[in-house]
Every structure is written in structure tokens, then in C-alpha cells.
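[[Per-residue structure]]
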Amino acid sequence: MRKSFWELATEFAGVENELWALNELFNREMYCTKTSAAKTGVKYYINRDSYLQWAAENAITSPSIGHLFRRLGLDGLIKRIDAGGKIKPDEFLLYMETLYNLVRLANTKTQWSAIAVATLVQIRSSIEANCARLGYEIQKRGDRKYIIVEKDAAATAVADKYAAENQDFSFKVIEYNHFILRGNIDRKREILLAIGQKFESVRPQLESGNFKDVAKDAGLLLNKLNIRHNNTSPDSKSYNAVVAQMPPKELEVWYDKTYSVLLLALLADDFSTLHKEIKELKAQIETK
């Protein structure tokens, strides 16, 4: 079946083509400001006017965007594409995350020319569209800091629920889905510990309501998967041979399942409160 122009123009063109297009936009020479005497890329002005302050704010020691790209291993991606090589999905995600943070630094309300502003908007919208096509989304994590995470409606709901109360906790809930954490069991364990602490604050309400199994399962996973206790050392009183012999990839799968159960528990707490209100309303209705 033939596709329309809009289907062809908006579909994902492949990691290599999309990365090449973003790089071309970032480096395309134009009159970037209203007073420019020479053509440069938007990269030049971001590097000159905004990068160093942002880098200092985030403890980034690279003195320039070019150095940052080399440090992250992103400087050779275009050469690899031009030579017919392939780009790994995580490399593409890291490139987009880096580029998105950089273009967000540009203060388009000041000296930028119309074509430069349009270019910056195009880069941002392209990255956002690519993320959506791949099942990811961009989340703001503090002032002028953005990360790319897998889409997870439950994670977003939990993060929103606790944002006003504890923003750092909300950031951790979102961070668990950061693409760079794949395989990082230690960091995932730290985040699960933090979510586990929040779970304990709602556990009594879950156990006294209709979510006893959720509370029980969450507690079991936290206590038996080398998260809260040392379940892998033979000298530990909490030693468990099954967990100790579990391959890292399998343990990570169970960590991801623990994450899902904990999110369910924190959301179920809302329903427990709502359920009580519904029961009260039902009682009022049935007495009349």
C-alpha cells in the first residue's frame, strides 16, 4: 500500500538518518543573530554565550561543546554514518539528550535571528518527535536539565503526586526509566530503596484495605532481592542462595518488576482513600 506525503515525511527515518539530520541543523551556517557579520552555526553562539555557565552549574568540566562531545564519545558518530556504519540506539539517545540540553540554553528572546530561532525550534521538535516514535519522552529534572526516559504513565503519575512534597523523590522515580540506567543495578537499587521508604508510609493503609497482596508482594521483593538487606553474602543472616546465584540480567528484570509493584502500591494508596469516601457516599445513599 502506497503511503501519503505526510506518512512518508513524518515517519521515523532510522537512527543514522535522524542523527545526521540533527547534526546538520546544529552546525548549519547562517546569520544567527541580527547583527552577525559572518555565517556560523547555532552551536557557535550557544558555546560562546551560554555553555560555560550551564556547565559550571552542573559540574561539567568540559570547557567547550566540542570537548563535551569528544568526552561523551559523540564526536565520531557522523564519520561513522558517512562511512556506512551503524549507530547504536543508546548512542542516538545520548546524542539527542545532549543536543536537547544545549539548544534549550539559547535565549531566543534576545539577539537571535528569525532563521536561527526556527532552527532551534526544529531541533527541539525533531528530538521530541524521535523520542515519541521510539517510546521515550523528555522530562525536566531541575533547572535547565533534561533527561530522556522511557514512557511510563504510572511513573509520571507517582512523580506528579509527590512533586510538591519532595521534588528529589519525584526526580528519582523518573530517573529509574532513564535509558542510561540499563544495566546499572547499583543505581537502580538506590532508587528502589528510596521508593521503598515512601512505600512504608502507605503500607498500613494498603494492608488494612483491599491491597494486602500488593503490600505483601512489595515488602517481599524489597526484603529478598538484595535491596534492603544483603541477600548475596553467605555471612549475612539474610543470605538467600537463589538471589545470590541469580545472573545480573535476571536480577535487573526483577528490579524492574519491583519498581512496577512499588508504583502500583503508591497509586493504590490514592484509591484506598477514594474507596473509603465511596463507601461513605454509598452508606448515605442507601439510608435515604
Summary: The two ends are 62 Å apart (CA to CA).
